[in-house]
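User: I'm new to structure prediction. If I give you an amino acid sequence, what do you actually give back? Let's try with this one:
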Amino acid sequence: MSVAEIGVFGGSGFYSLLEDVTEVKVDTPYGPPSDAVMLATVSGRKVAFLPRHGRTHTIPPHKINYRANVWAMHKLGVKAIISPCAVGSLQFDIAPGSFLVTDQFVDRTKGRDDTFYDGPITSHVSPADMYDKTLRDIAVSTIRENGIVAHDGGTVVVIQGPRFSTKAESEWFTKMGWHIINMTQYPEGYLCHELGMAVVNIGLVTDYDSGVVADVEAVTAHSVLEVFQKNAENARKVVLGMIAKMPADLDALGKKEGLKYTRGDGHASSEYDIRIFD
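Assistant: Good question. You get back a string of structure tokens that encode the predicted 3D arrangement of the chain. For your 278 residues, that looks like this:
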């Protein structure tokens, strides 16, 4: 069933002011997604919104059912994913309040279910250039059009969470030349890639991580929330602006080397339902 073409992983702020929002529940072979999916039309495009932490932010990053979330988007027909998230800065010139459009990731998580290829089908999908170049260009231009500082390219190091980094860890990440730090981009982005959906990540910089690189206080949950809330309207403008600029032919984005969706264990995608809430 194709009921959406563009997907957004983000909270209610992205769709709360839109008209004619429809709530749907998607069953998946991996268990329930973080929440129901919200469907709306933006600039003539059908868009699916799913809060990765749940609509009341009750799911910590290491407990998110990433496979269910991504599979639900694919089941709805989504071909391109916009994945904004709060990030900490690891470099002095990437200041809080700016946005960074990621082009690489480093995985420092552990124990997360991070592939759809659990057998008997065996496949190896390369993430060497995982983030879609066309979507990245759209993101950078849209951010700058809204008067926000946009860093074009950078590496996000993804940590397990829910704890923040020690000063030693943060200093190590900085010396490695990595740019921002986050707890959710892996395996979310990679799973989108496995299913052949083009994906772009926008890091909303909220802090300087442990504070070492800028000689400031270490990050706290309160400080992240405070800056993120200030950035929320900017993020909404950018995401909606990007949707308006999306190419008509989303099938032409990126390298479609992922599954479309076939499981080798008998769980055909048609066995799982989409239910619309009135």
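You can read the tokens as a compact description of the fold. Here is one thing that stands out. Residues 257-270 have pLDDT under 50 and may be disordered.
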